Structure formats: C-alpha cells, structure tokens
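Narrative summary of target 7.
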Amino acid sequence: MEIVCIIPLSEIIVDFYNELKARTRGYASMDYTLDEYRAADMVKLDILVNQQPVDALSIIVHRDDAYHKGQRLVSKMNHAIDLPVQLRNGALTALNNLPEGRRICHGDFHPGNVMIASGREVVIDWIDAACGNPLADVARTSILVMGAANSSQMTRQVEKWLVRIFHAAYLRYYFHRHPGGEKEYRQWLPVVAAARLSENIPEVRDWLITLVEKGLPPG
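Modeled conformation, tokenized:
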C-alpha cells in the first residue's frame, strides 16, 4: 500500500520517521520530495531567564502555535524536579557565561534522525532547530547518544560498547572538521544535561544528575 499526500514538512518530520518504524516494526518506509515553498506566518519564540532572552532556547514557530509551545517549554523547565535547586542555578549561571552563537542548529540530532531518501542521507526532524552555538548542538547529541549507553534499559554490554565506539567516532570526526572547540564542548555538557532532565526520563535520571554535578565549575 502507498499513501501520497501534501503536508508541511515541519509537521511530517517531527519524530515521524521513528514512529513509523516503531509502529510497523520496521516494515514501512517513507520518502519525500519538496513540492514548493509557501509563505507562512512564522515568529521567533523567545524564552526569558531572569528577564533576559536566551538564544539557545529560542525557536521559530508558526504564530498560531507560539503561545502553546512557549507554555510547554516553560512548563518543562519548571518541572525539572529531579535537578536540585543549587545545580539548576549553577547550570543557568554556566549557560549565561557561554557564548550564544549565531549558527543554525538542529537541536535534536542523533542517528534516528538520519534517513536514506532517493539514495542520499537526509537529516530530518528539524522542529527544534534554532539559532545558537553549534557546540551546544554537539553536546546535545552526546547526551542523547551516551544516554542510551547509560540507560537502565540497555543491559547488554556489547550494545553499550558499540554505542560508545560510535560516540567517540562522532566526536573525532566533528573536531577534525571543526578543531579547537573541545574545551567549550565540555562546558556545554552539564548545561545540556540539566536541560535534558526537564524531559523526565527516569532511566537516565541518575546519570544526568551526575553529569551536571561533575561538569559544573565549583562554587
């Protein structure tokens, strides 16, 4: 069976590929071609921390969705109950001391967001894309990938070993292409780990808290 439809790309790529594979046990596939560009009423959604906008938290959304998406983002931050107040404040302080950056960042890049379409690799799921620091994006990828290896749900050591090999290869390749950012990348790790806690994933909770504790500067 084949289903053909026209739909905004930003809607179809929001974790659609992962859901498609999961629900069909890998049997279904998806391909797409760009039909045309259409104008839309888009706005920049800013999140304020201590009354100041933080570029790393800003996203581009449709005007009709801005209020509700803003509410969901703030709610997630306020409900990161697993992170002690002292660590939360430390993470916010560290965030304010890191360079914001002006690059387009994916915001949720991991192997599950790469698909093969028409014989080439395509990065999908750009709904979290924003203007920011690319090293924060690399740190987010590290948290997602290494979170799998440190999850209580992954029990086979060979799987953990393979994930760590992949992660190390990813970092080597990135810093070979973009040398000189290793120190700043390590500074982003506890900040991104603190943000990940707001997603309330029990199987990586303890690992994330440890990462925040060890990564933040003393004081």
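Residues 157-177 form the longest helix (21 residues).
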